[in-house]
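Dear colleagues,

For the upcoming journal club I promised to circulate an example of a predicted protein-ligand complex. I picked one with 2-deoxy-2-amino glucitol-6-phosphate because it came up in last month's discussion. The inputs are reproduced below in full, followed by the predicted structure.
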Amino acid sequence: MCGIVGYFGPQDPKEIIVSGLKRLEYRGYDSAGVAILHDDKFKLVRASGKLGELQKKLATESFNGRLGIGHTRWATHGVPSERNAHPHKVEGISLVHNGIIENYQQIKSQLVADGVQPSSDTDSELVAHLIARKVKVTGDLFKAVQQVLPELVGAYSILVVWEKQPDTMVAFKNGPPLIIGVGEKETVVASDVQAIISCTNRVIYLEDLEIARIRGTKVELFTAGGEPIHREIKVINWNPEQIEKAGFKHFMLKEIHEQPRAVANALAPHINVDSQRTQLTGVGFGCASFEELERLDSAKDALLTAEKLSAIERIFIVACGTSFYAGMVGKYLLEKIAKIPVECDIASEFRYREPVIPPRSLVLVVSQSGETADTLAALRLAKSAGALTMSICNVRRSTIDREAHGHLYMNSGPEIGVASTKAFVSTLAMFDVLAVYLGRLRKAIGEIEERQYVEAFLEVPSQMEAVLAYDKFFAEAADRLKAFKGLLYMGRGVSYPLALEGALKLKELAYMHAEGYAAGEMKHGPLALIDERMLIVMVAPKDQHYEKTVSNLEEARARGGKIISIGTGNDANLKSISDYYLSLPMADWTVNPLLEAIPLQLLAYHVAEALGYDVDQPRNLAKSVTVE
Ligand code: AGP
């Protein structure tokens, strides 16, 4: 998953493009480059490695043109290297690309047979060759791109410029996001709002199979077939400082500390503070989805009305990675509170296992980025099966957000760190609300019980603030914790998915071996792993599983395991059998996961930091996996 930025305007394209790429660096970072007009030709500067390597090269470069494009790459075709970095320049054409051209081998054979000698191993360069050939015939960049598109198969987005039209950019989207920022005197095209917002907060979202012709500040949208499209300009309410690190060393640490506010923002639209009851508001519930908003009459059947939701007889929760673990917590909440059967699937399995989706099913997809390929495919499969669908996303108007019938939002603001934190806990909050809302609709809970749950939810942000104090503990303990050969995370009930999430955080940040297990499974194998070199992280809040979890812990202790336990209040029992004991505030079982997440995140963050790894951009990973 790569980052694309294009700029036309009076400012220095180098400054705008590089600062935009910096804000997209989390999307992929094994090489980067720019192509900017200088003396009416595109000057290409590219570098392997992180964006900093490109910045070093650009320090001595200046450009007198007003048009340029840039790219940070997460390699799919061709190893990370300067020659495979984007932009790709062929004659007067320069191009950047995100996604995959599936028929690139066939295109390459044809080009080579015609005498072309590609200079890279990428599928992207081949597209530049096709457009460079076509523009000689059309004499116009937009027409050339339009005529090349039918030759390409795959999920990809491209941004193309041509020396002979120095005020024009042509953008095409089919899969990975592309957004156009329309300023007073300038236009910015980028993969994400964060790269645009310092120039303008007025944006146009490209939809799949749409092509944009940008001439100066004139933006025209067409279907791939050439039909004009009218799309209104949206105004984004983010401000640039939201995106900066606010004084923290890493975006991830900032985002861990933002969690109380993120959860409050997630809950706010769905808690009626006066009545102390839950509500589902917003796009797809009280009104239609974005596009249908303009055509309300034809959207009635798409609305997830209370009446429709009351008739739901089964829920499928589908997601990847951390979002999947949040979905597992959602399963426990929905089944225990709303008494509705729930299946929880990893998206890459769901999309191929030919799931049986009975009538009156709701398929709920969870995705922070709203662009994860497997999750998007699962959503589309569900819709083709006639199911009602709902999304929980963090990025508004992302592809998954736009395509679901009903839309809930994590509302946690931009999450830059590749390792998901605040989006995870905000998703947990959304599942709390959804479980109680459906519980009321289905008459599985009464008004008093609902009010009690709502009260517990409203306390969570301040309880989370208290737990964040463990930041200092893990900063000091990290040097000891990093020495273990591996970590075994365990929990029961809603704490079991938290054990899985805690293990994932350590794997993706500290590159250490870690496993998450249901504590009840210990005797079925993991007990053999335990010795003094194995650190056990036991999530053991005072809930209905507490006694059994403590006995699991005593078994582990008896075999010499070192133990960190995370419990409720001043638990002398847990303290007596643990090497480290972390105390969480007394809370309802439905919100314990939001509190448990924080020490698990801080443990992984500080161990990775102690090992000297790049916490915000862990090796081999990308923030959103927009390819299979
Ligand atoms: C979590 O820390 C990872 N970055 C990864 O597992 C992530 O949760 C997964 O790729 C799903 O991403 P999404 O929520 O944007 O769909």
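Two points we might discuss: The pocket of 2-deoxy-2-amino glucitol-6-phosphate is lined by residues 320-323, 367-369, 372, 375, 418-420, 508, 624-625 (CB under 6 Å). The chain has a mean pLDDT of 91.

See you all on Thursday,
B. R.
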